[in-house]
Amino acid sequence: MISDSVEISVRGKWLRVPALNVNGNTIFATGGRLRVAAVHDGDWLESELKDPEACIRELQAEREKRLRADIFTFAQMLPSTTPKYSYPLEWDSIAAIRLTSFENWWQSLPQESRKNVRRSEKRGVRLGLSKFDHDLVSAIMEVNNESPIRQGRKFPHHGKSFEEVKKDYSGFLDRSQFISAFFGNELAGLLKLVYRGEIASVLQLITKACHYDKKPANALLAKAVELCEANGVKYLSYGKFHYGNKRGDSLAEFKTRNGFEEFLLPRYYVPLTRRGAFYIKLGLHHGLLEILPRQVIALGLATRANWYDLKRSLSRCSSKLEQPNRNRRMERANPPAGSNL
Fold first, then answer.
1. What is the pLDDT of residue 282?
2. What is the pTM of this model?
């Protein structure tokens, strides 16, 4: 066991936190009053955690030292849906496609989804694989900076520098592919695909809103399925299917329309302290999306989206009102025609 630290990304910002290296696995802990330990990049590993008991022992030994944790959490990977351990568990809602062939996936899609892929090609979107270089990072910056608001909330990657964007996309380069969608010379969308043995996972899918009518997201996912088939991948995953009690959002609908279904995987929550056991017993170890009723979450999301819409509207109105005033000031400052001034 080696005490160390590791950088993690939280809401688009990089933070350095204390960590342990246990049998080649980096374990870190975050939180204030309740500290939860997890495997670093656990959702992107090529294999499951082999010896959770060793991690638990080290965390308990480290409890009074630099890395303090009240709970240790880890999960099983597809296709392992049957619990292997006797620790307290809950079920992770994972969005994934079980792949047999591209053709079977294609035929399972709604007619509208297939039309969207064809529409993308007809409207001039060109798909390909891009190298992770200066040009690609610069193109990603343009996509990020299209709008400070995405999906009704503040977009954390808007306005980032070249080096920040490069760092965000630099993970797992030895087993990743960047699928790009270009309209002319402009990047209309990008999908980063990470290979994890018999699983491939979508780490990032981002498109320009101004090219929404060209359906680049649908085309990018179709290309990802094609690559998975070519590489013998059995599952394509794309984050969670449900995020806590949040239901019926546009992202979940998009996943469903593109062939993703819900897989329930065991996620373990091992109490390391009395505080950890108390929080787990009361279900307080989750964020607000797990605790609040669905109706409250839906109301909060709608209120947030309306607030950002109002701010954008006020900003546009303000700009329009200021422009004539600037023009009037310039007109008064201009000398009359024929003047020598």
1. 87
2. 0.83
